Hints:
By secondary structure, chain A is α/β, with parallel strands linked by helices. Helix content of chain A is 36%, strand content 17%. By secondary structure, chain B is an alpha+beta fold.
Amino acid sequence: MFRMTxxxxxxxxxxxxGIQTIPGIPGGANLPLYDALSRSPVIRHVLARHEQGxxxxxxxxxxxxxxxxxxxxxxxxxxxxxLTALADAKLDSVPVICITGQxxxxxxxxxxxxxxxxxGMSIPATKHNFLVRSVxxxxxxxxxxxRIAASGRxxxxxxxxxxxxQCAEVAFASWPEPGLPAxxxxxxxxxxxxxxxxxxxxxxxxxxLGGGVIQAGAAGAARAFAEKxxxxxxxxxxxxxxxxxxxxxxxxxxxxxxxxCANLALEECxxxxxxxxxxxxxxxxxxxxxxxxxxxxxxxIDPAELGKxxxxxxxxxxxxxxxxxxxxxxxxxRPNQEWLDRVQALKQEQPMRLGDAKExxxxxxxxxxxxxxxxxxxxxxxxxxxxxxxxxxAYPFRTPRxxxxxxxxxxxxxxxxxxxxxSMARPDLPVICFSGDGSLLMNIQEMATAVEQHANVKxxxxxxxxxxxxxxxxxxxxxxNLFASSYGCxxxxxRIAEGFGMRAVNLDTSAxxxxxxxxxxxxxxxxxxxxxxxxxxxxxxxxPPGAANKEMLKGEEYADACA
Amino acid sequence: xxxxxxxxxxxxxxxxxxxxxxxxRNHPGVMTHICxxxxxxAYNVEGIACMPTGDGxxxxxxxxxxxxxxxxxVVKQVEKLHDVIEVRRHEGGHPVFGGLEPYFRS
Lengths: 563, 106
Ligand SMILES: Cc1ncc(C[n+]2csc(CCOP(=O)(O)OP(=O)(O)O)c2C)c(N)n1
């Protein structure tokens, strides 16, 4: 017979799930948990500076490992501060488990100090949530939370634990089994055969890979499938890394900021093989005009995604890896040379143009230089804005689970804490965080956490003293009426970083910026690399919101090439 | 206005065509999950009835909804809710709400 408090049970259950690191912030309603956590021989607590930061650290750990990760917050404001990180995890299907303290059961509903209904508030932001109503329930709820977070389409789970439940004693005979992801059901053979027939009879197929391919660990299967069928491939923002950017069949990202060749090839395809994607509007543009002549084979583990936006002639419900592996022996090893030649011609005529990328201090130059210095194994996190889109366009992606970006929610402030989390989960890998000045300011307090943890994160700050992407939209779509998109005060980020105890280099004042950057990367631990970039430089191409993908606007970079 | 037993008016005066029969886990919060899902999609639930079944660990919920082109998608989302064990769809209504009708005469 075991006898212990709810708090001890909870920490022990997390240990049994293999949790090693928990970011969080303590407060009155979760102090019993912290007291128990202090005695854990295996779990390290990382004190974040904001609960949103803790949530994104957990996301960073979950995105690189693919396993559910946990973060802690107290009741009331601690709990409400987690909501953005949870909503972000919901939209990008990231398995994180948020454990909040709650006021004692007897006080729930009395407007007690720091009481909020986080159970009610988190319903639309989570895959599922629990309010634990007895200490015994912890023994089923915690494994269940892990099972739910990791099964099928992954997602965030919130577990709200009243303080008296944490303090209550419970006696039990044996520990429950750790919660593991459910095994996906088998793909019906008939569906695979019909999909393969469509693929084999198509003349101009395109493969469209999304975050689901990464989640399913199916990047290898996707690549083998593309190579066997000789199928040109595009990736969503979340799918980048599924096949290497420099793979001959890759056309990079599709959609709003894609290379022209990617969107134009999709225009011409007669079969769209969609894997682990949800036909997001940033990828499809005006959906009625997306791949107008194409039939669709759509594979996804979430049945609700099939037919949600674009009906599929053949749906494959289930694990995307299983689907791609099942299709592999069925697709003919007979690439259509005419189509490949056509796509190749588009790639030559309508490539991505990255302007002054050779200049280290330009936005694209910084991306290439950081990629070169960090090497092929690096983890790359971004914030949200122009710097994010440029990184998606230009970074030489090679490996799945190394690309961390807030895709669905587009949350400024994601980058730094996610990068810290990635570095805690994979201290063996270098981590780059590309950020903009607006975004960095949204979770800049986590610089303190990075320093404390000695996280090997290099923040490459492209400072335009503006909300660059907003400025760009105003310039292009609001007749140049620039309003509330630039800052009146120039923040001295180098001094701020140094104030947090972080190394910082300023490429603006450096005689040899490449050498300066190399020194920054050579030195382990966190470092801010600051560079001023031009706020007036827009990210091109761009598909205007609501327009079809073929109606992309191209900047002067493209002037000579476009008809 | 007299109505046949299983036809009921919706808020916009049209006929409510579909009744969803849900087997759900019975605990506080289940109905919030279900109703919130419809509310977030601006999909009106015209009628609700819910009672525990068997030993009380699960309940049966009946939802009367308008049948429009979004219903398939909403039903798929309802099926994804962890506390929802099963969804059955009755097109063209179900007598359960007709039986309640005497309690809703003004
Ligand atoms: C939390 C949050 N608030 C507002 C926005 C809207 N938004 C999108 S991009 C952007 C500007 C980002 O500026 P910055 O981080 O400096 O990056 P830049 O575009 O200049 O590279 C804003 C305000 C957002 N995505 N997230």
